[in-house]
Amino acid sequence: MSDESRALLRVEKAGPLALVVDGGRFGVRHLGVTQGGAADWVSFRWANWLLGNALEAAALEIVLGGGLMLEVEQDATLALAGADLDARLDDRPLAPGTAFPVSAGQRLSFHQPRDGLRAYLAVPGGLATPVVLGSRSATPREQLGGHRGDGSALSGGDRLAWNPQQARVRRLPFDPAQGITLRGNRLALVPGAQVGHFTGASLYHAFNATWRIDTRADRMGIRLLGPELHCRLGSMISEGIPLGAVQVPPDGQPIVLLNDRQTIGGYPRLGALTPLASARLAQCLPGKEVGLVATSREWALVSYRRCLEAFR
């Protein structure tokens, strides 16, 4: 289908980082290709849910806002979820957690973060972008996916298309201001195979100290600043890295690995954040203080399944 027969958004001004994302790229880690996908997968799914889309349909992940401006070229209904980036339709403020009509000629803009870091903009049926290795998600480090197929972020003059269809508009079953990934600063962690090799003092600090989000943070990983942790392991054979893995490099400052992480790593790990905690961390601005809370694998699964049931 040609662009002329599709609904379109034109990028009038690019922000610091806006990417096409979907549910992620799976089944290819043996090739060294990471999963990618929406960093806050919960807010991403709610954005699609608001329009009646498939929950993993491609949408736009907008980080920080930073002056991103999109011009609407055809009438449509869009949805916004996740962080409050001071979004506006022309001069009208838009609250996250809502679906809203747009008309040709209107401008959708994003400014400075008010609450959270990442917002998700969904379109009816999902964005129509190239499928690369089973996913539309952009992973800049690997130069895969996204609106051009090369992993790049949006830039001025780009156009985003989707196949026009009627949105099935819904309202969130909770107050958007109490969004699950924006509230709270406690991050549940399932202890891993190397946790017993950390010193007793290090384990005490890991789960009792306050950790501050470093400015060294991206879709690959987020460094936590706090007490120096020590592990007795001298060396390790590299092994597979799951979403939320908490690695501790020689400087003793944990790094939580996110969607665009490497597929293997050789640093000892405290364990891994639960999927919900990983989504919550993805909404944390630099400087925010968080804490780690040990939890069981069984409870992590229960919490994850409860979250999935909410989308029905």
Describe the protein's architecture and organization.
- This protein is an alpha+beta fold and 312 residues long.
- It folds into 2 domains: 172 residues, no CATH class; 124 residues, Cyclophilin-like (Cyclophilin, Beta Barrel).
- The chain contains 4 helices and 20 strands.
- A 7-stranded mixed barrel has the order 12-19-16-17-14-13-20. Strands 7-6-9-4-1-11 form a 6-stranded antiparallel beta sheet, with no helix packed on it. A 5-stranded antiparallel beta sheet has the order 2-3-10-5-8.
- Strand 16 and strand 17 form a beta hairpin.
- The protein is globular and about 60 Å long.
- The protein starts with 6 loop residues before the first strand and ends with a helix.
- InterPro entries: CT_A_B, Cyclophilin-like_dom_sf, PxpC.
- Keywords: ATP-binding, Hydrolase, Nucleotide-binding.
- This is Biotin-dependent carboxyltransferase.
- It comes from Billgrantia sulfidoxydans.
Number of separate helices: 4
What is the strand content? 25-35%
How many separate domains make up the residues? 2
Radius of gyration (CA) equals 20 Å
Strand order of the largest sheet: 12-19-16-17-14-13-20
> Which descriptor suits the 3D outline?
globular
Mean pLDDT reading: 93
Secondary-structure element series: EEHEEEEEEEEEEHEEEEEEEHEH
Question: Unreliable stretches, pLDDT < 50, 5 or more residues?
Answer: none
User: What is the number of E strands?
Assistant: 20
* Share of helix, binned: 10-25%
The rounded distance between the terminal residues' Cα atoms is 31 Å
The structure class reads: alpha+beta
How is the main sheet built?
7 strands, mixed, barrel
